[in-house]
Automatic annotation (TrEMBL), chain A:
Belongs to the protein prenyltransferase subunit beta family. This is Geranylgeranyl transferase type-2 subunit beta. Its EC number is 2.5.1.60. Its cofactor is Zn(2+). Heterotrimer composed of RABGGTA, RABGGTB and CHM; within this trimer, RABGGTA and RABGGTB form the catalytic component B, while CHM (component A) mediates peptide substrate binding. The Rab GGTase dimer (RGGT) interacts with CHM (component A) prior to Rab protein binding; the association is stabilized by geranylgeranyl pyrophosphate (GGpp). The CHM:RGGT:Rab complex is destabilized by GGpp. Interaction of RABGGTB with prenylated PTP4A2 precludes its association with RABGGTA and inhibits enzyme activity. Interacts with CHODL. Keywords: Metal-binding, Phosphoprotein, Prenyltransferase, Repeat, Transferase, Zinc. Binds 1 zinc ion per subunit. It comes from the Eukaryota. GO terms for cellular component: Rab-protein geranylgeranyltransferase complex. Residues 18-315 form the Prenyltransferase alpha-alpha toroid domain. It comes from Armadillidium nasatum. The gene is RABGGTB.
TrEMBL record, chain B:
Belongs to the protein prenyltransferase subunit alpha family. It comes from the Eukaryota. InterPro entries: Prenyl_trans_a. Signal peptide: none annotated. This is Protein prenyltransferase alpha subunit repeat-containing protein 1-B. GO terms for molecular function: protein prenyltransferase activity.
Length: 332, 371
């Protein structure tokens, strides 16, 4: 491959080895930081932040470094009377944070600490006539919310409470002629949405209903000469999109269609050797979100010092093995 | 900073929003430190806030709203309306605050016009803010177009654009302008184009046949112009592709005449053949753009489907085309493919990147197109 107009350059100055300990320290310090203003500014997605941090720590084998009781207590306080979970105390429940909460509780083996019956009811009531899901009572529809609903119910072992076939059909309607998926029928293909839609099809064992070769090619064309993957044509490479694409290719059994070595090099280059943590692209600011997806990507690519990740739930594989959840992975 | 000062700043922002319905921009003005004058600037229908006060006032407003929220009394409080408004200008990602306003609107205690303006101002600072687009869709569905929303709806005068009252249809037409604006501010603005598709769907289901022809003609022409100036933006091309689908649908339902869209168009196939040529022209001028190749693939896939279907219904299109679609090889289709294979021999080799894109394109043809 030659020069590319929308790529980044990786130089010798960028990290080449995985700085496990640095990342663990970054996450632990982040959880202790209680700067008033920043706390306020990030409260509306706190629950997802907790999920990113805990999952990343577990991949690093250092989950015990966090105070589990404190986390469980917080999640309990975020359960709304209707059964759904909010991102933080005093905020409104939403499917996005309901999934994060359930993931956190399953990870900490504390799912029995909340009223899951109510949660199941909350989720199943959000399914619409056409099989789609609204994110909350206000009605916005998005294929991401379909994934959140199906993934949550699967972790609770209650997928029987919704119309699964209709949910699948809605997701299939979000597929475009390029093989990708968007937020709603007719919406542009987008790697994040592709991950959600494939994830739903994988959980429900319906992956055979799509054209995997067509989508597989579209996905592997996201790789740029630097090794990084972008989320849509002519966009810059980004570690979080690397995860959406890598996990999607894994579900399709086509992970080997991308250049593994270059991908690893790109992800490693997004580490900040001083502060710990990963960024979207080499040289940017680190955050928890990209830290999880950087580690998850490396785990998927076979990094031995990390625990194995599940491509659909983005949770450590051993956790899903323990509760007997399995997903469909195609093979070619 | 004293609470009274915070309160004064929040009120001052509120007064401006209430009084100047033609406000057209909100922004943060960088300023080094506190000065002895108001940090709220209002000039020429633009609202600005000096950066030094943001941290304090946001924190104060946030706390006020959360305090009311926790005791459930926010429905009736002016300070919650003002507080959520202030916070959302700075941090529109806080969905809960939009929700609080939804509840107040449904109670008839807040005019939906205020939120059309607020969400518009938010988009001037953050043109790809999904929460602002969502809130506008909710306002349309739950208040503006809902006959049952009673007092919430009665108060609305739909001064969504420049303070001129209008109808629901006017609102949707103006919404297209808003989308053009947000798309021009942020490249590949996914949520803006998605919102535009939503507007087109709403408009086409709520207007007369003559107006749908007008709508699709306008979008057909404007999307073409847009692409020619934004050849690296796949979002705009995806939108055009969907507009072509809408034209087919309306044509098949007998709602529009193709010649009204373009005097040379007679059949559905011709719509796509014309864009195949268009895409060729774009590629000749801008050969290094991956997005243009993807647009071409979409058109080719659609054409393959149409040819394999012998001109039968173009809609609804199947999600992803498989090679087996074509049973009999049509000579016209064959000509399209022969041209396709030659085309890339002709313009091969301008840059390494272009060579790579051509290789991918031919690979895609081999995998997905029958010839
Ligand atoms: Zn990212």
């Amino acid at each position: 491959m030659g020069s590319h107009p929308k790529d980044v350059e990786i130089t010798d100055a960028h990290p080449k080895t995985l700085l496990n300990q640095k990342h663990a320290e970054y996450i632990i310090n982040y959880s202790k930081k209680k700067d008033d203003y920043e706390y306020t500014m990030t409260e509306h997605f706190r629950m997802s932040g907790i999920y990113w941090g805990l999952t990343a720590l577990d991949l690093l084998g250092q989950l015990e470094k966090l105070n589990k009781d404190e986390v469980i207590d917080f999640v309990k306080q975020c359960q709304s009377s209707n059964g759904g979970f909010s991102p933080s105390i005093g905020h409104d429940p939403h499917l996005l944070y309901t999934l994060s909460s359930i993931q956190v509780l399953v990870l900490l083996k504390a799912i029995d600490k909340v009223d899951t019956e109510k949660t199941v009811e909350y989720i199943s009531k959000l399914q619409n006539e056409d099989g789609s899901f609204s994110g909350d009572e206000w009605g916005e529809v998005d294929s991401r919310f379909s994934f959140c609903a199906v993934a949550s119910l699967t972790l609770l072992n209650r997928l029987d409470t919704i119309d699964v076939e209709k949910a699948v059909q809605f997701v299939l309607q979000c597929q475009n002629v390029d093989g990708g998926f968007g937020t709603r029928p007719g919406s542009e293909s987008h790697s994040g949405q592709i991950y959600c839609c494939l994830g739903l099809l994988s959980i429900t064992k319906q992956l055979h209903r799509i054209n995997s070769d067509l989508l597989g090619w579209w996905l592997c064309e996201r790789q740029l000469p630097s090794g990084g993957l972008n989320g849509r044509p002519e966009k810059l490479p980004d570690v979080c999109y690397s995860w959406w694409v890598l996990s999607s290719l894994t579900m399709l059994g086509r992970l080997h269609w991308i250049n593994r070595e270059k991908m690893v090099k790109f992800i490693l280059a997004t580490q900040d050797p001083e502060s710990g943590g990963f960024t979207d692209r080499p040289g940017d600011m680190v955050d928890l979100y990209h830290t999880l997806f950087g580690l998850a990507g490396l785990s998927l690519l076979g990094e031995k010092s990390l625990k194995k990740i599940n491509p659909v739930f983005c949770m450590p594989q051993y956790v899903l093995d323990q509760i007997g959840v399995n997903v469909q992975i195609l093979s070619i | 900073m004293e609470e009274a000062t915070c309160e004064r700043i929040i009120k001052s922002v509120d007064t401006i929003i209430r009084k100047d319905s033609a406000l057209n921009e909100f922004g943060i003005i960088q300023s080094a430190s506190e000065v002895n004058k108001s940090p709220v600037i209002h000039i020429d229908h633009k609202l600005g806030l000096e950066s030094w006060c943001v941290k304090y006032v946001y924190k104060y407003a946030y706390t006020v709203v959360m305090r009311y929220s926790s005791i459930g009394g926010y429905n009736y409080s002016e300070s919650v309306i003002r507080g959520t408004q202030f916070c959302l200008l700075l941090k529109p990602e806080v969905t809960t605050f939009w929700n609080i306003r939804k509840k107040i609107i449904l109670k008839g205690l807040l005019n939906a016009d205020v939120d059309l303006l607020l969400s518009r101002l938010v988009l001037t600072l953050k043109p790809k803010c999904i929460e602002a687009f969502q809130h506008r869709r909710w306002l349309y569905s739950a208040v503006l177009s809902d006959q049952n929303s009673g007092s919430a709806r009665n108060n609305v005068i739909l001064n969504n654009n420049i303070g001129v009252p209008g109808t629901l249809k006017d609102f949707l037409w103006a919404e297209l302008d808003l989308c053009t604006w947000t798309a021009s501010k942020k490249p590949n603005n996914y949520h803006s184009w998605n919102h535009r598709l939503w507007v087109v769907k709403k408009l086409s289901s709520s207007v007369e046949d003559t107006e749908i022809s007008e709508l699709l003609k306008v979008e057909y022409n404007s999307s073409k112009t847009w692409i020619s100036y934004h050849v690296s933006e796949h979002s705009g091309m995806h939108y055009r592709f969907k507009i072509l689908d809408e034209i087919c649908c309306a044509f098949e339902k007998g709602r529009l005449n193709l010649v009204y869209i373009d005097s040379n168009l007679n059949t559905v196939k011709e719509i796509y053949l014309k864009d195949l040529k268009l895409s060729e022209d774009w590629l000749q001028s801008y050969p290094d753009h991956e997005a243009l190749f993807y647009y071409r693939r979409n058109i080719l896939a659609k054409l393959q489907y149409l040819f394999s279907n012998n001109g039968q219904k173009a809609s609804p299109p199947p999600p992803a085309y498989k090679r087996s679609c074509i049973e009999t090889i049509d000579s016209e289709w064959n000509a399209v493919i022969q041209r396709e294979l030659k085309l890339f021999e002709e313009i091969k080799g301008h840059s390494d990147h272009y060579t790579q894109l051509c290789r991918q394109h031919l690979n895609w043809i081999n995998n997905n197109i029958s010839y």
